[in-house]
Design goal:
Layout (H helix, E strand, L loop, with lengths): L1 E5 L3 H11 L5 E5 L11 H16 L3 E10 L6 E2 L2 H7 L1 H8 L7 E11 L6 E11 L15 E3 L11 H4 L6 H13 L1
Parallel strand pairs: 1-2
Antiparallel strand pairs: 3-4, 3-5, 5-6, 6-7
Length: about 180
């Protein structure tokens, strides 16, 4: 079965292929800039974007939206992760976290599947970890340099793509695959 992932982000495409192709799905990519609403959760953002893209393309699509949530900052930046990256970046997050002992954080990845003419269904993965005290690594970009996944001692930025992508929780991808197999 073929899945159309709507994104301009090559890393989201590579990650989806790594996680869905072994489950028997072919991942196709349509590069369009979708409308991303301002909402409190990444699930809401993904659902809206998936519905918009499905209606525009007149086909079934998957839209991925990811947010970094830092416990000591009351979940900030959450669904505003992209905005926070473009404004304060990793250095700004490290400044906000200076002197804070509780460094727990998680990435929430929402996969919204939308059949043309229907409402989207959302599947979520959460990758737990902590915020490092300083940037580390040479791989990846953005939050990869400050996020240490649970069970690791180094940031995601210390791992090449093939290793780094496997450090992300893939529960949402498995749930999406199971849903598609059961409904089609």
């Amino acid at each position: 079965m073929k899945i159309t992932l709507v994104t301009e982000n090559w890393a989201k495409v590579k990650s989806a292929k790594m996680k869905l192709e072994p489950l028997g799905f072919e991942v196709d990519n349509v590069k369009i800039d979708t409308i991303e609403i301002q909402a409190d959760t990444v699930q809401e953002v993904a659902k809206y974007s998936a519905k918009w893209a499905s209606d525009k393309l007149k086909t079934n699509v998957v839209k991925n939206d990811t947010g970094l949530m830092i416990e000591a900052l009351n979940g900030f930046p959450s669904s505003y992760t992209h905005y926070a990256q473009n404004t304060i970046g990793e250095d700004g997050i490290l400044k906000l976290m200076k002197g804070i002992e509780n460094r727990k954080a998680k990435f929430v990845e929402a996969l919204a599947y939308c059949e043309y003419g229907k409402d989207p269904v959302v599947f979520t993965s959460e990758t737990e970890g902590i915020i490092a005290k300083e940037k580390q690594g040479k791989y990846g970009w953005s939050w990869d340099f400050i996020f240490i996944p649970k069970g690791e001692t180094k940031t995601l930025g210390c791992f090449p793509d093939d290793v780094r992508f496997n450090l992300w929780n893939s529960t949402g991808y498995k749930q999406l695959a199971e849903y598609l197999k059961n409904t089609h």
